[in-house]
Amino acid sequence: MKASEKVEFEAALWVVRLERALTAAEQDEFLDWLGADLRHGEELTRQKAGWTRLDLLADWRPIHGARPNRDLLAPPPRGVVSRWRRHAAWFIPGALAAAAAVVLGVFLARPGNPSDATAMAIAPGQIALIERRTLEDGSVIELNRGAELRVNFSAGERHIELSRGEAHFQVAKDPKRPFTVRAGTVTVRAVGTAFNVQRRTASVDVVVTEGTVDVRTPKPAHTGEREAAEAARVEAGHRCVVSLAPDSPLAVVVVTPEDTARLLAWQPTVLDFAEAPLSAIIAEFNRRNAPFQITVDDPSLADLPLSASLRSDNVEGFLRLLEGGFGLEVERSGNVISLHRPRRK
Fold first, then answer.
1. What angle do CA 26, 27, 28 make, to 5 degrees?
2. Among 35, 168, 245, 329, which is 20 to 30 Å from 55 by CA?
3. Phi, psi dihedral angles at 48 (to 5 degrees)
4. pTM: predicted TM-score of the whole model, two decimal places
5. Residue 78, helix vs strand vs coil
6. Of the candidates 213, 217, 214, 161, which has an alpha carbon nearest to the alpha carbon of residue 186?
7. Alpha helices in 37-104 (DSSP H)
């Protein structure tokens, strides 16, 4: 099979899977495939458009007439939003057909690729994507923007030192080599599970999404005594906030699925919008990409309809989409990004 045929075949398979909705594992696989080659996003767009256009055949039955309607697959009249348009990935005016690869795949680093650092490189002042690393044991780490860590694997232990920021860990099971994450004086220990660790100035926040972890922190010892440690077992659906102040107890609380989704909203996913107002799309990007915030200084832009499939952390691709497709201007001031119509000179 030729390389081009292989891409077409894989894209067609993903269209079918997307129609029935992806599992969590398939979503990760889809993002990996999408970022592996710029052609993948382009071919997915083409296959998806063809697939959704065929849905229109459901509107014709033999009882409707002896002959098929030759205009059935014709583009809908202006102002009419068809089911095809609602589901297709890209139907935006102007030069946005070429932008599909930008929003769907450009700058998406390949997990586990040694060249990830190069792939993630981005111009100063621009917002990078969330970094994803696959370790030698198969564990996967997603690093929120600004996070820094060191990996130290030995024959008997897998150790991570989180020196700054926030990261989510999907740990490959290996009972003979415990997996530990150290953030300051706090240590999180797991065998095979998934959890999120955020290191703040005055505390460490641990959220467990799968399995169980042990959280430990030093306990002040009296003169002549051996250093003690306070420990807590944290199960899936629970959160442990460890204050770094002396003599502060570990606090383990239940978190609802809604709270977990809010706490982990920074993790990348693919967002599908169909004729959604620009204000709603911006609100979703702001929720997922704090502290970066996009603002619109022209109220008339708030209801601008947009149909697109966007990676949630690809803020730069989203901005280029608005610049190239709608002619909007982008201004940056620190973490605030302002959108407005071109100003008269």
1. 90
2. 35
3. -65, -40
4. 0.65
5. coil
6. 217
7. 38-54, 83-87, 100-104
Whether residue 72 is predicted with pLDDT greater than 90 in this model: the reply is no
- 222-233 as b/e: b if 16+ CB within 10 A: eeeeeeeeeebe
Q: Are the C-beta atoms of residues 19 and 55 closer than 8 Å to each other?
A: no
Residue pair 251/241 in contact (Cβ under 8 Å)? The answer is yes
Reported as a single tens digit per residue, the pLDDT across 191-244 is 789 999 999 999 999 999 999 999 999 876 554 455 557 899 999 999 999 988
CA distance 101 to 263: 29
- Of 233, 198, 193, nearest to 215 by C-alpha is 233
Domain 270-340 grouped into CATH 3.55.50.30: yes
DSSP code string of 177-221:
S-EEEEETTEEEEESS-EEEEEE-SSEEEEEEEESEEEEEEEEPP
- CATH of 130-263 among 2.40.50.140, 3.30.420.240, 3.40.50.20, 2.60.120.1440: 2.60.120.1440
Strand order in the sheet with 336-340: 293-296, 336-340, 329-333
Q: Cis bond leading into 291, ω under 30°?
A: yes
- How far from 55 is each of 232, 271, 274, CA to CA, in Å? 54, 22, 16
